[in-house]
Amino acid sequence: MPPIPTSPPPGRPDVSQHEEEPGGGMYRLIEELYPICRSISGEGLRETLRRIQREVPISLFEVPSGTRAFDWTVPPEWNIRDAYVAHRGERVIDFRASNLHVVGYSGPIRCTMTLDELRPHLHSLPEHPDWVPYRTSYWAEGWGFCLSQRQLEALPDGEFEVCIDATLNPGSLSYGELLVPGRSTDEVLISCHVCHPSLANDNLSGLAVAVELARRLRARTRALSYRFLFVPGTIGALAWLARNEAGLDRIKHGLVLSCLGDRGPLTYKRSRRGNAAIDRAAAHLLRQAGLHSRVRDFVPYGYDERQYCSPGFNLPVGCLTRTPNGEFPEYHTSADNLDLVTPAALADSCAALQRILEILEEDRCYVRTEPRGEPQLGRRGLYRGVAGLRQPAMEELALLWVLNLADNRHSLLEVAERAGLSFAQVAEAAKRLSDEGLIREA
Ligand code: ZN
């Protein structure tokens, strides 16, 4: 059965009042979504997608439980209303205090047990005694609670009342999709996972940056088309791939977004191809952006790039983060909270992302209209260099490089890489030379 898009509600009339501080709008969206108990299916996920619809007109799709997606099957839908462990009528672990207290996808249970019987179902982090871990059991039946080591050590002896008021029933998995069309049908895939409960950096930061990017792209003309996916991790990406296999050859570039709100430096993980245009554009931008930014090779571990870059697809999809998954101590714990992410980091991430995409939009090859010898730049007011200086000014160097490599074999990004100049400098030089009629698009 094909997915049924539901028409989005009308967008908010004007959301430009967002921006009183850089990143402020993204941060407030994270604050709003943070308390919702999300998972790979269920009402929390739908509520999150509907909230995104108020920012940008994503379509919502529902994939029924039991639907096959390659080697996987969409699981029953999980919904939870309440959960607790109580001792003498007093809640000692309480889902209402934090949704992280329940292992995601826990089945329903209501019983009384001793601490020894309860203990195998309790998860804590001895190395961070005040933090509550985030755990799930999507693919194995079971139930459990997560709590801080201090809470665990303070549990009294005696009988405990255990309640998880949850359902695991046939339903559906939800995801959101938005196509922002450009002049070309060539697409840039922007994908983020939307399945984590109260975790700010891993999940909500990527979501917020993707929403902001979509808002900005919709407000300008675009050479490329952009397809945004807001999917539950792994199974959501697989379900989307299974339903959209016929159109995958339109995807010329792609990025998975996550962990974009912490104070760490930007990190780009290359696609499996390793040398795709997105890999080169991101590496170039990050090199230019700062000393501490990092570019890493593909590894089959991380987020949904694992699916997009599986051998049967091998899409040119990299992954942009600040501190990558698993490399910050707060990862998958209650300490990945609203204090870990900052508006400034979100703003910086979004700006870098936009500049990477600008490279993809503007990169092209040029040819000289008269390739024999150098054109006389001084006569055209393009070369102010004083004869005898050891080095020409940067702008003049950019002109010379573009003129020399305008042979239909070197794109502007290749010129920038070879010349050690920024893409922006090279693109500006190409514009000036093109305006003068010295080069033209190949
Ligand atoms: Zn995660």
Topology:
Layout: H1 24-33, H2 43-53, E1 59-64, E2 68-69, E3 72-73, E4 77-87, E5 90-94, E6 109-114, H3 115-118, E7 122-123, E8 145-146, H4 149-153, E9 159-169, E10 172-180, E11 187-193, H5 200-218, E12 225-231, H6 235-243, E13 251-257, E14 267-269, H7 277-289, E15 294-296, H8 305-308, E16 317-321, H9 343-362, E17 365-368, H10 394-405, E18 407-411, H11 412-419, H12 423-435, E19 439-441
Parallel strand pairs: 7-8, 11-12, 11-13, 13-16, 14-15
Antiparallel strand pairs: 1-10, 2-3, 4-5, 4-9, 6-9, 10-12, 14-16, 17-18, 17-19
This protein binds zinc ion.
Describe, in short, the structure shown.
The chain is an alpha/beta fold and 442 residues long.
Describe the protein's architecture and organization:
There is one protein chain. The chain is α/β, with parallel strands linked by helices. The chain folds into three domains: 15-74 and 172-361, Zn peptidases (Aminopeptidase, 3-Layer(aba) Sandwich); 77-169, Glucose Oxidase, domain 1 (3-Layer(bba) Sandwich), CATH 3.50.30; 364-441, Winged helix-like DNA-binding domain superfamily/Winged helix DNA-binding domain (Arc Repressor Mutant, subunit A, Orthogonal Bundle), CATH 1.10.10. The protein has helices spanning 24-33, 43-53, 115-118, 149-153, 200-218, 235-243, 277-289, 305-308, 343-362, 394-405, 412-419, 423-435, and strands spanning 59-64, 68-69, 72-73, 77-87, 90-94, 109-114, 122-123, 145-146, 159-169, 172-180, 187-193, 225-231, 251-257, 267-269, 294-296, 317-321, 365-368, 407-411, 439-441. An eight-stranded mixed beta sheet has the order 1-10-12-11-13-16-14-15, sandwiched between helices. A four-stranded antiparallel beta sheet has the order 5-4-9-6. Helix 5 packs across helix 9, helix 7 crosses helix 9 and helix 10 packs across helix 12. The relative contact order is 0.12. Mean pLDDT is 94; it is low at 1-19. The protein binds zinc ion. The site of zinc ion has 3 residues, from loops. Residues 196, 202, 332 line the site of zinc ion.
